[in-house]
Hints:
It contains 45 helices and 29 strands. With 1281 residues, the chain is α+β, with helices and mostly antiparallel strands.
Amino acid sequence: MRRPPAAPLSLALLLLLLGPAQVISQSCVWYGECGIASEDKRYNCAYEGPPIPLPKDGYDLVNELCPGLYFGNVSICCNVQQLQTLKNNLQLPLQFLSRCPSCFHNLISLFCELTCSPNQSEFLNVTQTEPYYDPVTSKNKTSITELQYYIGERFANAMYNACKDVEAPSSNVKALGLLCGKDAKDCNATNWIQYMFSKDNGQAPFNIIPIFSDIPIQKKIPMNNATKGCNESADDDTSPCSCQDCSLVCGPKPKPPPPPAPWLLFGLDAVYVIMWISYMGFLLVFFAVVFGVWCYRKRHFVSEYTPIDSNIAFSVNSRRDNGEASCGERFGAWFENGLRLTFTSWGAFCVRNPRPVVLFSLVFVVMCCSGLAYIKITTNPVDLWSSPSSQARKEKEYFDTHFGPFFRTEQLIIQAPNSKQEIYSPYPSGADETFGPPLTKEILHQVLDLQDAIENITASYDNETVMLKDICLAPLAPYNKNCTILSVLNYFQNSHSVLDHVAGDEFFVYADYHTHFLYCVRAPASLNDTSQLHDPCLGTFGGPVFPWLVLGGYDGDNYNNATALVITFPVNNYYNDTQKLMKALAWEKEFINFVRNYQNPNLTISFSAERSIEDEINRESDSDICTVVISYAVMFLYISIALGHIRSCRRFLVDSKISLGIAGILIVLSSVACSLGIFSYFGVPLTLIVIEVIPFLVLAVGVDNIFIIVQTFQRDERLQGETLDKQIGRILGNVAPSIFLSSFSETVAFFLGTLSTMPAVRTFSLFAGMAVFIDFLLQITCFVSLLGLDVKRQERNRLDILCCIKGDDDMSRVQHSESILFMFFRTVYSPYLLKDWMRPIVISLFVGILSFSLAVVHKIEIGLDQTLSMPDDSYVIDYFNHLSKYLHAGPPVYFVLEEGHNYSSLEGQNMVCGGMGCNNNSLVQQIFTSAEIDSYTRIGYAPSSWLDDYFDWIKPQSSCCRLYNTSGQFCNASVVDPSCVRCRSLTPEGKQRPQGEDFMKFLPMFLSDNPNPKCGKGGHAAYSSAVNLINNNSEVGATYFMTYHTVLKTSADFIDATKKARIIANNITETMGIKEKNYRVFPYSVFYVFYEQYLTIVDDTIFNLSVSLASIFSVTTVLLGFEVWAAVVVSITIAMIIANMFGVMWLWGISLNAVSLVNLVMSCGIAVEFCSHVTRAFTVSTKSSRVERAEEALSHMGSSVFSGITLTKFGGIVVLAFSKSQIFQIFYFRMYLAMVLLGASHGLIFLPVLLSYIGPPANKAKTQAAQERYKGTERERLLYF
Length: 1281
């Protein structure tokens, strides 16, 4: 329906006030088109006269474009051809700005008034013309080649304010960044309008000079039409712009929550203060009790050297053996006696039958080791660090299945160390611009040569030649097979000639590569720059190249200051196609070799391929084999020599136990091999952590047991009438319960560790538990038999190793002997440590260390610096360092909406989209809001939204969606064919969003449409993989909305980004109301599978260590004959060792991650070895006081533990310090050294002192049984068992 004529009263009053009263008649300055401006662009014909009625065949066009002029007889200053040209020129702005109808309404008003207003002469002033002869009418005409357009400042500012927030969803930038010729933040009302009216933008046929004023100038009245704010409806059929496109609708910008305030007391860290006060309180109470007991003892005239817990001073042992043993004590004694008799009988059997036992052991080992034929070693980082049942792993599987796996990345970071900055001075005017060293033309040509050479790299796989073009990501294939190369050189179409393109004359250069670069970094999706070059910026692969992805080392948004170039070659990844994946791997191998050997003194290149990390981890493992072998060799040599007790040089080869030591070591290694073989049978894959850590653990456990058995035998004297088998059986009966206690505790602790969700911890626990258990079995069978054979060899005076040769001296039996270390422990160390004045010092010192460790435990960093996983000499370390130094964009993140959502309904669309009419808490809007507070959410940009771009693409006003009226097939916007008609009519219904069948009918066309100058919204390049069509393209399945994280440099950054993205996705799921349905929104980025573990690693650490301690406590309680208090003391000591390990981690800069958690779990096992033997010796001692029992336990077990674990491990650990692997240096050398030193200090210093204070009372039933058993024998003084 035509609108009645309208003459705003306010405008009339303004004119009356501003000048003398006069009647201004309607008048034109042009009508029709004349000469050719350039290619398909034409000038308008000069015409001074009244508006001319528009032919009726142009009514639909003027109603579509300029409905404000559609009234009366439609007398305007343009013809149908000019209206058609206007429509064509508005296509690009329409596609990007029509998502905000108010913005586009104002823009249309600007151009309609310019092109067709019947009052043109009021605000247009022709400044340049040229004659034109019209061959059709054979008339001379005048072409307008330049004019002035007087525009009201109020109008210009209002139009800009309505459009400044409009998003371009496919490009993650503001739409004005693509339409202003500048970065969106540098765009304003003035330079935007100037750019649109400049012929240099590639669209305007001639220059239109805007003059901004709100008052008349030189008799010209500026065009100052009424405008619509973005928070207003443009008409009755539309709504205000969305929050994403209009900040006025959103309200104030969201603010991130303030960081949590530090917990302080007295201005200091509260934990520090609490632990300091607790420690001071402990010292006060502890020394008060010690002093009180000392005073009480003095009052009773007791010698000051009498132990403070002796029977005189409130000893728990005051009930002497005269009293009756309790029921619990009798049961404990019965259990202890049962273990002793069992192992005694078994030891005697093994010594009497060495050949069957050894043969059976060998058969068992061979059977288990045969499983090694099925061994699988996992080097895939995803399998190493992420559980198949974890959330991130499931989400990765979902993403890979529905959208294809995330592409493989080959990346170069290039610097130009020998180049200097350049100053570019634009002509004829403009501020000087500084160009960084790598942005000189000479360097760019060299980099382009390198880029071309990489494109031409050839690899061979399965007799096929593989090049980059065969495996690269080509989003527009098969129409455009160019590879995606994210490089600054794609601004120049990867062409030397375009890079050299210059516009100028013999005197001046008006535009060159500097000009083009400065334009492209602000409008990367442009197909025509604003300079005289008119070269495209869009990459040859059909997509924009964002400057923050290809430039590094610049400040702010001054991309021209870049000090590094980043070139990325995305390569297709393959989910279930091994053949294609192997081709990609083959090409990557050649790529690595090529770049490593590339020589150019002007370029410094750091690089990485997708396979680089895995390759370097494998190389690291190979290079560390030598280090590990030397480490074990040192331990083997020590064990072989230290086991023997040489009484004289003449008997060195007789008394040495080199062969027994080697046999013991082989048993340890066999137990490891058996564990690997057994689980390989069942298809459990190995990890590098298992191979590197478990031999160390089992060697610690196994060697300790070997030393205890052998040294106990060496100190023992055969009883009268006792045979060798009975002697060894008796010794095994005494020590095997202790060995069984430690081994079984460790086994149970490790097997329970398999409850962990972390693959590295679970796999380690599984293999370690089995290895420790098999080692125990082999030691009480095979090793006992071999010990018997070795003793027989020694008694027969035969040489060690060369057992066929007999020595000079002949001895009928092996005499018992006490080593120097044992004598030192018994006569010097134990008495000195347990003196009354020393014990309080020890307790105070160790509790102080514990307090310090607890105070700093919350300061330990979480994560694993990726550079630590590489060898010292790896080329990837340089890449990682430059990555954090130069990169300005984080990894892409995809918010995936799972299959099940109904996109065809208006309600379903509003839940997701971000344009006009969409919910303020829609999926796209919430991600956009998150990007507004990027420092908190780690979301760097607004998301690309296929749904919003689809709505813009399908609008009937746009030329994007067209069909052949004959076949109904899709007709691309670049096709010139009269049979191509709009997909949807220009009726009010047609302008609404498509729903139901309409939605699905045109969506496949959108996803197959390539962007072109007439339609930049084609979805093929941007969204072909983002939408999963199902059921023969009749429904939309899973889809994603992509954005980027902010720059992430440290593990803490990656962990926080993972956590925040999940919070955002969960909130979207909640607000969409789909939580109860069978689908949800989840975030996916390629690094989530590696960093998810750190979201729960604190809980995992607490769980694993708690389970280990609980299992150790339970097993210790049972195997000590239900000595609950002894088990508590052991558990307390082990807990202190673990707590102190955390303190060492903080001091030595060791972060908490899967590797360090494995070591902490292993620390529990090593700690059991240091604590359990001494504790059991204490519980079975028959001495009268705790101090005497502690001294006896430390004397007899301390030397074996010290020589068996501490000295053995110390030599091997020192070698690890020389490893090239940073992981070995930090997580193995440092943690193993701390493990051994803390274990030894607690087990051999703190534990005996603690037992002397609060150890369990002697079990009277055990004491009576021992006295009865050894009454009248020389063994009465050796009751330590």
